[in-house]
Amino acid sequence: KIDWKPPAEHIEECIMKGKSKTDCQNYIRVLARKSAGVSLVCGTHAFSPKCREYTVTDYGIRNTRQFDGQGISPYDPKHNSSALYLPGTNQLYAATVTDFVGNDALIYRKTIDETAANAKSANIRTQSYDARVLNAPNFVATFAYKEHVYFWFREIASEAIDNNEESQIYARVARVCKNDKGGARPANERWTSYLKARLNCSLPSGSSPFYFNELKAVSDPVDAGNNDHVVYTVFSTPDSDVRMSAVCKFSMKKIREEFDTGTFKHQNNAQSMWMAYNRNEVPKPRPGSCSPDSTKLPENTVSFILHHPLLHRPISAVSSPLLVEGADRADLTQITVLPRVKAVGGHNYDILFIGTSDGKVLKVVEVDGNATVIQAATVFQKGVPVVNLLTTKDNVVIVSSDEIASLPVHNCAQQTSCSKCVQLQDPHCAWDSSIARCVHGGSWTGDQYIQNMVFGQSEQCPEGIVVREVFDDNESETQPEAVSRNVYSKEYSTMTVVLVAAVASLISLIIGAFIGIRINRWSASSEPHRSASSTSGSDYDSFGRARLTRHDSLTTATKVDHGFVPQSKQSMDATSLVMSMNATHHPMSMSQHGSGINTPSRDKNAIVTSINQNTLPRDYKVKKVYL
């Protein structure tokens, strides 16, 4: 047991600065094994980050060293940070913040061994307070791959501010070279290889894909064969009434190719649009590439990378999302992979374990680009999200904010018939006809094993083909239950998303009609009130929902009839459902998806609300409804 508490005076000082007593404790945010018996531990330490090295001796665990953890551990225990320790170089890569209020985000490399002669010179970071480099990021994961270290995060997209001055969140992947030494002075403590790109996880639909922009979880690279590795990721839409989650797969080979050869994104000034930088004007050697000695790079190359770290083209997923969970299901929160599990017949399959916001773990297998949920287990109380997942050969470790649990990676023995065993579509499990049991195997030698990974049915079973049983997630108990729920990416189109939104909007319209009748009756027996106005200059809130603004008039001479306008077949984007029947008005896309193109402006006078020539009272609210 290690007992590491902040001194009482540090806690008191933290509270005096406005933080709660709960936050002013020591939360461990970095834990790494340096060598046999030596561990590196870093914590928030009452908003004054500290690191320690603990050594296991014959007399117990001893604190052998303590040093400042600024730039390694976040100050706030709630901040999303990430870190990676590389034993070979004794260097720690951290993605966090380096100030009390959390405004100075950075990607930082620190040499841990203070006895090294070049320790200080090897410490490199991103430049401070530069939105082109990092803009209020939430870091998700960090890992090393070949000669680079990759950082996965989400941030405010500087290139995607719309005409209402409202920001958007984009998913990013960034990388640096392991051998980056910084540039020549004055850039000697700055990365010369830092590049970043947008990640594209979306449902295709013509020219207007449905984007999942917020990255939530990332797996380690998984060997995919063909000299490539893949990374499985969890994305979600922004917080809204129709929130959705998705699992997308990215190729490390494609990511490397884009970083090595892609076009840079450029903005001439703060008012101009972001555009692709002219390839002929990019200095050589190519900015962002690894150099044997980065301190000798030309000044124009170093200057270019400091001002143009963003690539122009997004990096797209290998295919459409493998799994999409709609608004009626819990959010997906974490993911880990058990790679290349051998099935009967010799084929290998990646098995995904996915955590949810309501304390469940889904076991998912990818078969020919489609995802099949083969098991769901309720691990924690409903409402307690899974915050981390780890896999071993035989177990999956599930972590919440307060608990740690472990489950076996398979439950073959629970299936009592051939059809139910085959129905799992689990490469771990097959029906052994020689002993009439559902068994777990590895080599699968012999012809007595019955398994069907594609259809989950087999005529070899004595009971023949059995119709699948419907599984209700809400009826899952604390013990794992078998479930086979095929989720084909082709079945999830933007139309599906629109239909879900339509149901929610229709309910809102019915409620709105009822309220409108009540208002109409009220206004007939009341004196006119002054018109209400918004204190904000924006027509839409942060989730794209319309709100009343000071320049929206609520009074007209006659009552305006409203009707439903059919959605444009050329676009699957959101269109206005409430429009004046008297005015010429055509559906218009809410946004132009893709690359920071501004939302088209609308004529505010074309959407008018009137109730018997009276304005609405201040205690009523009016919303424009969009689908």
TrEMBL record:
Protein keywords: Developmental protein, Differentiation, Disulfide bond, Glycoprotein, Membrane, Neurogenesis, Transmembrane, Transmembrane helix
Xref: SUPFAM superfamilies: Plexin repeat, Sema domain
Transmembrane residue ranges: 495-517
InterPro entries: Plexin_repeat, PSI, Semap_dom, Semap_dom_sf, Semaphorin, WD40/YVTN_repeat-like_dom_sf
One Gene Ontology molecular-function label: semaphorin receptor binding
Protein name in the entry: Semaphorin-1A
Domain Sema: 1-409
Annotated localization: Membrane
GO terms classed as biological process: axon guidance; positive regulation of cell migration; semaphorin-plexin signaling pathway
Keyword Nuclease carried by entry: no
